[in-house]
Design a protein that fits this description.
The chain has 126 residues and is mainly β. The chain is built from no helices and eleven strands.
């Protein structure tokens, strides 16, 4: 059974950093792309960053380019999202998910992903 569990959220001041983790079970990272998504209060889901099944290709939302980095730890079957220089507008619930069909998650669009975790809250505030 595919399962993804997020962790690492919390409260951080503007300009600070957090590292989110997505622990994957039921399959190895070699099979599916993994994506990070977020939902801010009153808004829809937004694709933040995705990494393909081989780890050779990544994609980032324009709003996080240069600040966020998606990382794979194949040994631990975990995908991380390193978030630096956080801004108030990064406040959201962050989710990780696996692409529904292998090779069909390259747009990092929420509808292309499934098996969402329970989410982890990130709050950026002074």
């Amino acid at each position: 059974q595919l399962q993804l569990v997020e962790s690492g959220g919390g409260l951080v001041q503007p300009g600070g950093s957090l590292k989110l983790s997505c622990a994957v079970s039921g399959f190895t990272l070699d099979y599916y792309a993994i994506g990070w998504f977020r939902q801010a209060p009153g808004k829809g889901y937004e694709g933040v960053s995705c990494i393909n099944n081989s780890g050779s290709s990544t994609i980032y939302a324009d709003s996080v380019k240069g600040r966020f980095t998606i990382l794979r730890d194949s040994a631990k079957n975990t995908v991380h999202l390193q978030m630096n220089n956080l801004k108030a507008e990064d406040t959201a619930v962050y989710y990780c998910a696996a692409e529904k069909l292998p090779g069909h998650g390259s747009d990092c669009a929420p509808y292309q992903y499934d098996n969402w975790g329970q989410g982890t809250q990130v709050t950026v505030s002074s």
